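WARN retry 2 of 3 for item q-0093 after timeout on previous attempt; input resubmitted unchanged.
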Amino acid sequence: MKALIFDIDGTLWDCRAISAKGYNAAFAEMGKTDLVVTPEYLATLFGRTGPAIAEIVFADYPAEERLERFHRCVWHEERFLAEDPCQVDFPGVRETLRALKGKYRLFLVSNCDCGYPELMMEKLGLQDVFEGHMCHGDTGLPKGDTILALMARFGLTDAVYIGDTQGDLEASRKAGIPFVFCRYGFGHPESWDAVIDSFDQLPQVLQTL
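OK item q-0093 returned
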């Protein structure tokens, strides 16, 4: 195995509390004072694409307005993330990723908008760790297809995906690569090829795949 492809939310960090502040600031700006999201509610949305989240959160708005309102939430979310120290990475993430870099090629694939992977890397000081990244904002494709696009771009033939949701499992299967489930994250996939209960278990688990 030569490449590791990582999900972000629920896998590398938990920024739900900061993200919720951004969403709620956007709701207030829209005059939607009756709508408030909690970190726990956001956990049920993470892993979906922007259009899918927009359809859920703004279901009572006309379809043509939903995505624009969602992007206003994202703008505020990224503003709060940029201003916050963001000490929200899961234990062992930074140290383990730096140890893995010497043995594997490291990448990111997420269902997020453009700019979010870069923001995460900057806040955690990991810009030099990842060789490349791709997201739904780049491709407009389901995550499995985005993984395949990243593998094609970087010439990857032997990879594994590390994530925490059923969607991550399905994306891995679509891409034809093994899936490592981060049980400490936000989701409950129906199956996996390997599982970790803390991020620092990853190097040992990879040896079994």
